[in-house]
Each structure stands twice: as C-alpha cells, then as structure tokens.
Amino acid sequence: MKIKMHILFKAFVITALLIVTSCGQRGNQSGALSSNMAERSFVPPGEHDEYYAFISGGYSGQLSVYGLPSGRLFRVVPVFSVDAEKGYGFNEETKPMLNTSFGPVPWDDAHHPDLSQTNGKVDGRWCFINGNNTPRIARISLSSFETEEIIEIPNSAGNHSSSFVTENTEYVVAGTRFSVPVPQRDLPIDEYKGNFKGALTFLSVDQESGEMDLAFQVMMPGFNFDLAHPGRKKSHGWMFFSTYNTEEANTLLEVNASQNDKDYIAAINWKKAEELIANGQFETMETEYAHNIYSESTHMATTTMKKEVKILDPSKYPGLVYFLPTPKSPHGCDVDPSGEYIIGSGKLAAALTAHSFTKMLDAIENEKFDGEAYGIPVLNYDDVVAGVVQGAGLGPLHTEFDAKGNAYTTFFISSEVVKWKLGTWEVLDRQPTYYSVGHLMIPGGNSQAPFGKYLVAMNKITKDRYLPTGPELAHSAQLYDISGDKMELILDFPTIGEPHYAAGAPADLIKPNQTKFYKLEENMHPHATKSEKDARVERNGNEVHVYMTTIRSHFAPDNIEGIKVGDKVYFHITNLEQDYDVPHGVSMIGANTSELLIMPGQTETFIWNPKKEGVWPFYCTDFCSALHQEMQGYVRVSAKGADVPLKWSLDGE
Amino acid sequence: MKRSQLYMLVGAILLSGLFLWPLWNITLEAPQYPDAIGMDIHINKFEDANPNDIKNINIMNHYVGMKDIPETIPEFSIFPKVALGMIILGVIIAFIGKRPLYITWFALMLVLGTMAMYDFYQWEYDYGHDLKENAAIKFTDDKGQPMAYQPPLIGSKMILNFRAISMPRPGAYLMFLGMALSVLAFIKAKKEQVSIQAVAALLVMGLISGCSFDPQPIIYGQDACVYCKMTIVDKQHSAQVVTNTGKAFKYDAIECMLNDLKEWERPEVKYYLVADYTNPGQLADAINAHYLISESIPSPMGEFLTAFENANDRLETMEDVSGQSLSWTELKAEFDVP
Fold first, then answer.
1. CB under 8 Å to B136, separation ≥6 — which residues?
2. Do the interacting molecules here have an ipTM over 0.85?
3. pLDDT tens by residue, A146-171
4. CB contact (8 A) between residue B59 and residue A577
C-alpha cells in the first residue's frame, strides 16, 4: 500500500512537471499567440477604438479609415477614383474634383497620407494624400471625412515623394519620382541627361480653410526623388528628399540606376526658399494645372485652371539645397522626433544610415564639401553621418519612431520589422511580417510626439494568410503592440487596394469635431430645395430641372409627367433630413450614371437622358426607414413633341 | 418691509423664471437615438431640446399617424398673460402685506396650475390618441385596442421601444418655489403678529417698572429652553435671564431657570424675568414677583411653580386653589440657588 502511494505520488509529480514545461515551451514557441493577444486587439461591441488609422488605398486611389486596435474598417473616403457607391465623380457636384490639365482623370494611385500638425503634433484637422500617376495632392477634412480639395502638380511625374507635412502645416511637399523634360517637349529619350528635371513642389496651406496654394517649385537635376520627410524641432525649416538614379539612366533602371555606390538625400532649406520668393528671386514659368475645391456650403466642387508657377533653380541660390551622400538608392527618408537624425534606408544595402542634422549644419558652415552636382554642394559622407545600423536586415525601406528613442524599420526582402535604438544603433528586436512589408506606421509617427503603443506594418503580399479568393488576393496590415520591450503581433487584417502607407491619430483628437449633418439653412447650393412646398419641375427648352426633396419616407414630388424622349433631365435632390445618419439614396432606371447618396441637408444632382417612352420608376437606395421600400416615384416619358403638360405631384397635391 | 412681505415679493418674482426657462420637458429615449430626442415646453413655445428634435419627433411619429407637434397653440398666448398677471398681483399683495392675501394668491396659483396641468394632459391625450386614419403603421395594445402614444404627465413610461420621460424644468421648479414662499409668507406673518405683541408688552412693562432693559421676546412654539432644551409653549410659566452683557436666556418653566441658576457660570445676571400667570405672555421682574406652589396648577417641568407680578392676583388664585406662597428669596432657598 505504502509503495503504491509512492508510485502514485511520483506519477503526479512527473505529470505536473510535464504540464509546467509544456506550458513554458508553448509560450516560447508562439510568443503572442499564447498570451492575451485577442484581448489586446478586441474592442467590445459598441465601444470605440483608441486610434484612427488612415490607410491609403494605393492603386484603389482612395483613403480607407480603420480603427486601431480592432482593425475594423469604417469608411473608404473617395479621393482620386470615382466611387459609384457614393456618387463621387458621377454626380454633377463632385465631377470637377477629378479635373486635371489632361481633362477628367477617374483614377489614381494614392500613396502617402499625412496629417496636419500644429507645433509639431498631429492636430486632427486634415489628412493629405498624393496621387502618383497624374500628380495631384488631395486634402481630406477630418470633420466630414470628404475630399475637399485636389491640386494638380505641374512639371511632375510619378508624384511619389509626397505628401509630407511640415511642423505647423506651413507646407505640404510633392516631389517628382520621374524626372521629365521641363517644360514638356518632344525630345529623344536618350537626351535625358541635363534636359530632364526633377521638380520638388511646396504647397502652402491656409491655416483657416486648409486651402492649398502652389507656393514654389525647386527645380532639381534629373534624379528620381523617392520619399521625403520634414525636419522638426531643431531641423524645422528643412525638408529632406531621398534620391535614386543619380546616374540619370533612362532605360533598364533596375540595373543602370543601381550603379552608384551612393545616391543622395537632398536637404532643402525651405525657409531660405521663402526668403527668395519674398525677395522676388525666382523665375515665373508658364504651365497649366487644375485646382479643384469642394465647398461645404454650396456642396459643389469647382475647378480653376492655373497658368503659372514660381521656379527656384538651386544652382543659382547657394544655401538652398545640399546633398548628403547616402548608400545604395535610399528609399525611406525619415526624421526622428527630435529632428536630429535623418535616416536613409539604402534599399539595396543591408545597412541603415543615420545622418546628423547638427553635423550637417557644421559641415555646411565649414564648407566641408566633396564637390558638387549640377551646382549643388555635396557634403562629405563622413562629416554628416551619425551612425550606421549594421546587419539589421535585407532591403530596409521605412523607419518610424516611438517616443522612447527607439526606431522601427521595415525590411522588404527579409519580410520583417526591426526595432533599434537611436544613438547606439543597436538592434533590439525583430519580428516577421507576412509578407514583404512596405511602409509601417506608428500613430503620430511623423511628428515630434509619436504615440508609441501600436505599429501597423503594411504588406504587399499575403499568399496563404487568408481564405483564397482566386488569383487576386487582399493585401494586409499587421498590428504590433510595441508598448513593451519586444514587439508582439496581435492582429492581421485585410485592406482596401494596396495599403501603401498610413497615418494615425488618437480618436479623441478627431471624434469631437465630427460633422453630424449639414444644416439645411446653410445650404447654398444654387439648386437647393429647402422645403417640400418649393419642390417643382421647370422646363427650359429640352432641359428639364427637377427640384426634388427627400424625407422619410417619400420624395416630393414623386409623380412627374410631361417629360419627353430626348430631354436632358437634371434631378437636383435635397435631403431635408436634419438628423445624424439619415442619408437618402436616389437612382433612376436606365440613368447612365451612378446613384446619388445625399447626406442630410445636402443637395446633389444627376442627369438622366430618357430614351424610351413609358413610365419609369426611381427609388431610394439607402435603407432609410421602416417605409424605405415605399420610398419611390414615377416619371412619365412621352414621345418627342407630345403635348403632355409638365406637371408634378405628391399624394395628388 | 417685513420678512413675510419679502417672502411674498420674492415668491411672486420667481414666477418670472417661466419667461426665461422651460416649464416642462418631454424626452424620448430609444436604442436608435443614442442622443435622446426631446422637446422643451416653454410658457409660450415648444422648443427643440437639441437642434431639429421636434422635426425628428414628427418624422418618427408620422408613421403611426400622429399629428405634427403644432408650431403654436392658443395656450401660448394665454399663459404668458396669466403668469404676468400673477406676478403683478403677487407684487401688489407683497406691498399690501395682508396675511390672508398671501394664501389667496397661493390658492389662485394652485387653481391655475391645476388647470394648466389638466390642459396639458388634454393636449397629451389628444396628441397620443387622435391618430390619422391613413397611418402607415397601426399598432394595437394587449387588448387589441389601437395603440395610444400618450406621453406621461410626469414620470416615465415605455411606448413601444421608446421610453418617454416627462419632467418639470427650471421654470416650473421656480414657480413651485414661488408658491412655497407665498405659504411661508402666510406662516411668517402669523408669527410676526405674535412677536409684535410680545415686544409691545415688554416695552410697556419696561416703562412701568421704570427701568430699561432689553429682554428678548419669547417666540412660543419655536424658541427652546436653554436648560431642558424643550420648546417653550406655556406662556404662563416661561422665564428669562438677561446678563450684564445683554444676552438673554429663555426657559420654558421658572423651575428650569432656577435649576440653571444653581450652577451659573455665565456672566452676571442683570435681570431675572418670569411669566405673569395672570397675563399670559407677559414677563415680570422675578425679584419682586410673588410665587405660588400649588398642586392644582401644573407647571411645565412638574414643580407646580407659578409666578404673579401682583400680590393680589396671587391672593385671588390662592382662594381657589390651596398652596404654599413664597418670595424670590424663599424660592431661591427652596431650589438651592446661591
């Protein structure tokens, strides 16, 4: 009996030990998987996320709005691409938003969102984003979450080193990726060298309205300008652009633009540029670009074609631009929160180069130049470099920062995020991404005061990560908790288009300023109908204007007669609702356009060209109420030349 | 101006709050309205609790056939006049200062208020019951009757998925306070009459005795005995001590004063006063008063001790009831007062 007990006891101890060790092993093997990972990204139903994440849609041309840490998608803001769901680019009011000097362009490739700042901190007023393909910069209101302005960038092509915002939102920059002949002209391509230029554009921002104005362009040599970031604190007043193809190759760039051991980071003293402009030391160049502004008061966009741009040639103005040699086609060009370090990620190297702003100023003062390029002084690499992060990974792309002196860099080739220490340049941690990470984002990352709690890594390739959906697969974003010493992957979510880059801000900064609906009495749309008694139909030749209203759950009028084949019928529809979250949608059978989606207090217009006689219905498309399905109407279309009088009614009145 | 008049005046003026703040509020809460929607009822208008609330209430209610909340109702032209009339009347009454008028004003307010509430109830009833024939949605209640959507007069009530809450707002609270003040004025005025009598009596007595002192009037039913802490109610047995510093100490019975004097650590006494049994409410000089201990005349603290200002009055009383007569000195000895 005694022996039996002994054996039993031993068995118990062994089992207990096994359990303990296996637990420990599981913890080691799967890291965050075994911890409270789900809990950390879980936002209970009805509760709000802590941060907004504005993630670019890449080649979707739009801006998507997510919550962090939940990864829930709240809205896709239409920016550069038409969006039939919202009538953007289809209704008469927003069509002008997509005008360019090439005519309307219904799509673009949206890359880098950045948030407005005040005193070096994100302030929750606006989000800016660039359109790459037909160079444009858009401004999105963070009250209405609508695109309020799009300005075209002349002399630019592949608007990639954009749209980065200075410390007090003085400027949004837009640098060209492709150099092009300036001015554009018919030229053999192999005459690239010397003839092609790279325009770096500074857009000033009106602090009240947010309206942008093309302040000036710095006309650089024909390199490729890849990315940019503003100086901050001590380096405020400078803007840094990374360059590649300083070889000025015009064909097979993957080889020919990768020959130089070092390319440059261009440091631009924009305070100096401001002085030059103020003193009239610039050239005026004729050009053409569209400036589109959406007015919240008229609920309409207008396009102004602009004809001139102020040009600064850096070879003429010493002190305007300096080149900092940086190894191997630097891609990311990131400035730490203190403004001291400018991090260049040599994407073909394994190392990261951190330049020192203090050393740069010292080198400039003592004229420690290592020659010049197109009249622009090149500083000596050894005089400006502060440190190199060795052996961090393969193919460094982008770096963001927390508020504790750490930097986080993505490595495309080795698919990982690496945490390292500013100043000591030592690697502290590395975590894999799934797969091929491009940008990363820490809310407030491009500012003096990052919120170092979460890191979002944006991946180009997902392969087997989600349920397969045919040949085309979702891209993804991955959320890491960076509050501790080690980064922990806590969430993985699919995104809209390509999640190229993102910006984030605390929800508390943005939530209180939300527009809940537009006040009807402030609606200045020229075709607004502010009460049902003003609803009417007017004919002017073959042009018919329907002034219609919507309110739960009917249109006024909802019966229209006297419309004829061949008419051009404008439906100007005003949503009379004055409550939160009560849009009405409208669609007409056979209309060669999208629906309208009209917010309370707003007026929108679509055009219908009736082609066939008959009685044609229209209806509300946004499930508005219990009697949404009853929200419909008819238009009687008579033959061309018929003498059916124009009349309209609601419930026989 | 007397205190009661002041109460009445303030009470009447508080009614003017009706012109500044809403009188009543109806709020509707439902899951799909995370910010509740509501309506403030002023004396002369309906107002959105938050912008557009009335419009949104109308939109919601039209589905079940309820009429729109009217832009205006006849009451809105009558109520302000009535309220203004009552304010003016109240102010006039305050200046007249007649006690019965205070309570009359209160009664009038009560009648008018009840009428207004009844009117409000009628409107609510009509609003909740008179539904359009062609309503899109027709609900029935548990008994199969057409659903009524009448909000409560006061308090809260579930109507379908809405909680309807009907509560007074600052205008009404100020009105209630004003009405309460008119009642307070009515009560106060009574006491003022009593107090005035007492003061007059003391003054007369002071003149008679040829000395000038400053005893305080005893407010019967309110003042408490310094010694036993009980409220002083018996006007025939109370007593008072006034010290050299002018401070007065009041007692509900002569025995309480004597007991208190046994261990007197307060400033030296200037006057001892006792109630004259023959003239209730009137105080007499205790040193020259004439005392009687008789089991036929109970005193508040059970010592059967009574005082008379006049010796003849004691004699007359002693003819009816037997007892022991004492002087101030003898009385002090009886109670061991030094």
1. A626, A627, A630, B62, B63, B64, B65
2. no
3. 999 999 999 999 999 999 999 999 99
4. yes
